Amino acid sequence: MQTANNTPATISTPGVAPASDETTSEEPRGTSNRSTTPASSQFQDFIGSNWADRVDELPAPREQAAFAAGRRARLSAAFAGSRLVIPAGALKQRSNDTDYPYRAHSAFAHLTGWGADAEPDSILVLEPNNDGHDATLYFRERADRTSNEFYANPAIGEFWIGARPSLAQVAADLGLATAHIDAFETTDADRTVEKDAELTTFLSELRLVKDEYEIAQMRLAVDATARGFDDVIADFPRITTHTRGERAVEGVFYTRARLDGNAVGYDTIAASGPHACILHWTRNDGPVSPGDLMLLDAGVEVDSLYTADITRTLPANGRFTDVQRAVYEAVREAADAAFAIVRPGIIFRDVHAEAMKVIAKHTAAWGMLPVTAEKSLEPENQFHRRYMVHGTSHHLGIDVHDCAAARREMYHDGEVREGMVFTIEPGLYFQPDDLSVPAEFRGIGVRIEDDILVTATGAEDLSAGIPRTADEVEAWIRRLSPSTDG
Ligand code: GLY
Ligand code: MN
Ligand code: MN
C-alpha cells in the first residue's frame, strides 16, 4: 500500500504489550464506530439502580489452599527479609478487541491455588515481617453497579464477561488475605523488587517434587486424557474418511476434554503419515489415511492447571505393517528400558541415556548408522540422534514442560526424587526424504509418551492404563472401532 506522496503506508499494530493497560482501564477498547451503550446521566442512574443486594456466601477453603500455604511458607523461609511480588499476568491480545483465553502464570497458580478461575492482573505480594512474610493477594474486585464498568466495558464488565468475585469470597476460598489491585498500584507498584532471577529459579525448583494434592491432580488429568484417546479411536471411521482427519482428531480430543469440564494443557499434535516426523506438528490439516500411522500427542488440563502429556502412535487402519511394528516396538523397548531404571537416587539424564542405548542398537541393526551402536553412543558421535533429536524426558505438572527455569544441576544433572513427575517419551522419526534409511522406513514417525511418578522405591507409570504395546494398540482399535480393520 502506498500513500499519495509515495511514502509507504503502514498500519498501526497495537501488538500485545499494551493489552494489560487496555484491559484494566475503565475505558473499553475503541468501538466508537459501532453501537455503544447509552451514556446519559439519566441512563446511568437508571441502569445503576434497582438491583437486589448481592448475597455473598463465603466458601470453605478449596482443597489446594493448605498446600499453597505450605509452598508460600517454603518461599518465605528461602527469602527472609525480601519483598516478593508474583504477578498472575495480563490478558494477551489476539486481535483488535479479542484476547487469547486467559491463563495465570504457573508460579502464581502454584502459590495461590488459583487455577482456571484466576483473575487477570492479580498480584501476590509477600511482605516481610518480623518472623516471615505477610501474603496479600491483590486483584480487581468486581465493580460497583454505580460505575459504568459493569455494563459498558466489554473487556472486564460484569454484563460482558461475568461477575468477578469479591475480596471476601477469594480470601475465604484461597485462605489468603486479599486487597483491591488499586491499593497495590497506588502504594506498591514502584517499590523495587529484588532477586528476580533467583526468585524465578526458586519457584521453578519448588515444583520439582509434587505434593499429594498435585499427584492426585495429575492422576485426574491422565485419566481424562485416556478418555480423549478412547474417543478418538472410537471415531476412526469418520476421521479416516475426513479430508482433514488430523483436525477431526484434534476436535474429538478437545470435545472430550470440554465435555468433562476440562481444557487442554498444550496444542494437540495430531500428526498422520509423514507429519508424524514433525515433532511439534500442530497445524493438523492433513488427512489420516489408511496405511499411515497417526501420532497423537495430547494432554487434558484440569481446573487446577495440572496437565497430562501423553503420546500414542496408532495405525489408521487398525493394523501395523511389519516395518511400522518393528519401529513401534523398538521405541517401546526404549521406553520400557528407561522406565525400568527410574527410582530415587538416579540422575535424571540417566533416563535418557538408557533409552538411547536401545535407539542406537536398533538403528545400527537396521544399517542406518556409519558406526556400531557402541561407537555411536560415544559423546562425540551420537549418530542415532539423527532419528530422535529431542530428549527423552521432561518434568510435568502445571506446565507441560514444568520447572523450566530450574538450574541444570537440579534438573538434567539432578537427582531423581520421590514425588517427581516426568515424561518418558522416546521416538523414532524417519523423514520421508532421508536417504540414510532404507526406503521402507521413510515417512514413519513413532513416539510413545507416558507420565511417570517416582515412588519411594521405583516408579509408577500413571498412563500405563492406556494401551502401549503394538498388540494392545491393535486390540484397542478393534474393540472401540470394530469397522476399522486393516
Ligand atoms: N507435547 C510436547 C512434548 O511432548 O513435550
Ligand atoms: Mn512431553
Ligand atoms: Mn507430548
Write the layout of secondary structure elements.
Layout: H1 19-24, H2 41-47, H3 64-78, E1 84-87, E2 93-95, E3 98-99, H4 106-112, E4 123-129, E5 132-139, H5 149-152, H6 158-161, H7 167-174, E6 177-180, H8 181-187, H9 196-205, H10 212-234, H11 236-239, H12 245-259, E7 263-264, E8 269-272, E9 293-298, E10 300-301, E11 310-315, H13 322-340, H14 348-365, H15 373-376, E12 421-424, E13 427-429, E14 445-447, E15 450-454, E16 459-461, H16 470-480
Parallel strand pairs: 5-6
Antiparallel strand pairs: 1-4, 2-3, 4-5, 7-10, 8-9, 9-11, 12-15, 13-14, 15-16
Helix pairs in contact: 10-12, 13-14
How does this structure look, described?
By secondary structure, the protein is α+β, with helices and mostly antiparallel strands. It folds into two domains: 10-205, Creatine Amidinohydrolase, Chain A, domain 1; 212-480, Creatinase/methionine aminopeptidase superfamily (Creatine Amidinohydrolase). It is 33% helix and 14% strand. The protein has 16 helices and 16 strands. The protein has helices at residues 19-24, 41-47, 64-78, 106-112, 149-152, 158-161, 167-174, 181-187, 196-205, 212-234, 236-239, 245-259, 322-340, 348-365, 373-376, 470-480; strands at 84-87, 93-95, 98-99, 123-129, 132-139, 177-180, 263-264, 269-272, 293-298, 300-301, 310-315, 421-424, 427-429, 445-447, 450-454, 459-461. The strands form six sheets. Strands 1-4-5-6 form a four-stranded mixed sheet. It has a three-stranded antiparallel sheet with strand order 8-9-11. Strand 15 and strand 16 form a beta hairpin. Helix 10 packs across helix 12 and helix 13 packs antiparallel against helix 14 (348-365). The longest helix is centred in the middle third of the chain and has 23 residues, at 212-234. The protein is globular. The termini are far apart. The model is unreliable at 13-26 (pLDDT under 50). The structure holds glycine and manganese (II) ion (MN) (2 copies). Glycine is lined by residues 266, 297, 309, 394, 400, 425, 449.
